[in-house]
Amino acid sequence: MTTAPLWRVASVVSARAAGSHGRVIELQVDGWPGNLAGQHVDVRLTAEDGYQAVRSYSLASSGPGEVLELGVDEVDDGEVSPYLVEDVRPGDQMEIRGPIGGYFVWTPEQTEPVQLIAGGSGIVPLIAMAKVHAATGSAAPMRMLYSVRSAADAFYADELVRLSGPHLTIDWAYTRSIPVGFARPAGRVDAATIASATVPPARDPSVYVCGPTGFVEAVADFLVAEGHSPDRIRTERFGGT
Amino acid sequence: MHAHPGHHERVDGNAAGGYLLDIFGRDMTTARATCAHCERSSEVADAVAEVDAAGVILLCRGCGRTLLTYVRGADGEALVIGGLRELRWTKAVRGVVGPAGIEPTTSTV
To answer: Is-contact A68 A32, C-beta < 8 A?
Structure first.
């Protein structure tokens, strides 16, 4: 094993709005070893007085490239996300550590059915999985349930439309307000949503759930109650409410 | 529930992966941690973590007891092994390693 630097300099290539209070940020990282879909990085910011703050962010990108994509939702009173969402500009630098994680990962070698379930910005590692699934022409049936407050809050809405097709079904659940003509009433993901809009346990899917802690725990409970084996459910909580 | 000053979001052990990478020099998120108190054995990624700028506390998801604590201060760093009976890992798991890059996914030990 070669020795690689723990922290690498990352330069902001671009930043664009995502959802109603988030951003998708591209970072150029020289020497980046590549990463798998679902992995995350730690981002370190250093203030002029030397104060440092570190936060973990999932990557929306995967593969061997040196441009990484983060999807960041602004956390009220956060230390790092307000900077990333409000202030960061192309050319700005930060440090990143990673790639990290071998648990919440999907690789194209997997052929079993896959159910992805995202709450809010929990879509980020799952969009990485959906993108590599499409890019490699995987025939593994993949279905995604995406829970957001309203259509305007969705990250990657256009990309999801493009990615949906014979091998990827996307189901939406709106918790606050629904688009005109949308059948499911606004409300949190519940047992009925899981029963009607996810791959049934009989097909023994791998299930990936990412979102705020409360969302992930509620969904995991519904999945187990529906008959999924707990060891087929992989979760990634990112805190918050 | 534990109450700590400051921001201690309860997240997954996966979020502690960066600190553990720093300490162990490899990705430990798929290592299996066994709790001495309740015997639960699961991947580090599946434990409960409280992470902040000062360090990380890893808690057993089975019984809530502290598995290990890592803290970093001006004087140095400390790793305190709490209820962690065993940490077991293989050379490469699901093709993922630390900062050195990605190993073949077919690699087994």
So the answer is: yes
